[in-house]
Amino acid sequence: MNTSFNQNKEIEEISLKDILDKTKDWYYYLISQWKVIVLAGVIGASIGLLYSYIRKPIYTATLSFALEDDKSGGGLGGALGLASSFGLDVGGGGGSVFSSANLIELFKSRSMVEQTLLSPVTIGGESVSLAEMYIKENNWRERWTANTDLKSIEFLANESRTSYTRAKDSILGEIYYNLSEEFLKVAQRDKKVAIISIDVNSTSELFSKSFTEALVKNVSKFYVDTKSKKSRNNMLILDHQTDSIRRALNSAINGVAVANDNTFNLNPALNARRAPSARGQVDVQANTAILTELVKQTELAKVTLRKDTPLIQIIDKPILPLPVEKIGKLKGSILGGFFAGFLMILGLIVRKIFKAIN
């Protein structure tokens, strides 16, 4: 048993000695290659310094808002239910097409982003679209100099998409994919709190701010209109019906007055001539009853519309100057030198291992 213990101890000592010897060999080998490693570090530092000059700073515009969507309705819901039990159709329910979670995806949708890209922004006293601003900022027109078809394409603010060509749609789509995949971030800060934050990154401070505000404006309008569309349509129909019945009632009242004038001092024996007046009285009573019910439904529909209209309250807006992310000259040099030196050391180790195998 002692013999086995001594053998194991000897093996452990030999293994530890081998490891130390190998470590020393690698250490002396890398020291012998210090000129190559330093040269790689200098080249990497130069590349990092050049990159810090070339790379444009990234500006981040952040906007947060709270979404209040009355789903329960409380006492109002009970009142509307009671009204429905009496046969009053007041709409109710609102549009449930979008929840607060789906609102995040709505911000990233192609239709909303492209609609925002066609929104106007003022630069130097001139109104241009955000799409034109993006193209100019990224020097796309310089790349289109050889292509006359692309060079002549221009995106006007609030322009209709019906006349767009395939190439024009493709360019707008490419801008959308660039923004949605790299520069546009939408997230809910906390699952328990309905506060949504939007971050837009770009190399233009004005574009980041303008695009963020325009996107929130367009999405908010679309969201509110969609959520309250059913109630709004119901209210408009009731308004139209109320106006029609009111006109019919006024006409019936005028008809009764004319009929009464025609039968003034009429012989009581001539009852047939009093029929138009009697019919007019019936129309007046019927239209009065209908108008009363329509007025009730219209007022309840207005209450329902206010209930179904969600509130989007902006909390924080992007304020100039925006937070900027850039690589300084010192930071770029250090990072470039470190990574280049590390890669060179790794390459030397791999080369030596291959030589030892062969």
Overview of the molecule:
- There is one protein chain.
- The protein is α+β, with helices and mostly antiparallel strands and 358 residues long.
- It folds into three domains: 84 residues, no CATH class; 176 residues, 2-Layer Sandwich (Bacterial polysaccharide co-polymerase-like); 77 residues.
- The protein is built from 13 helices and seven strands.
- The strands form two sheets. Strands 1, 4, 5, 6 and 7 form a five-stranded antiparallel beta sheet that branches.
- Helix 2 runs antiparallel to helix 13 and helix 11 runs antiparallel to helix 12.
- It is elongated.
- About 7% of the residues have low confidence.
Short overview:
The protein has 358 residues and is α+β, with helices and mostly antiparallel strands.
The CATH topology of the largest domain corresponds to: Bacterial polysaccharide co-polymerase-like
How do the SSEs run, as a string of H and E? HHEHHHEEHHHHEEHHHEEH
- What is the name of the CATH architecture of the largest domain? 2-Layer Sandwich
Main sheet overview: 5 strands, antiparallel
Helix share of residues?
A: 55-70%
Count of spatially separate domains: 3
Number of strands: 7
Distance between the termini: 42 Å
Count of individual helical segments: 13
* Uncertain spans: 72-96
Pfam families: Wzz
Protein name: Wzz/FepE/Etk N-terminal domain-containing protein
Transmembrane segments: 26-51, 334-354
Membrane topology: Multi-pass membrane protein
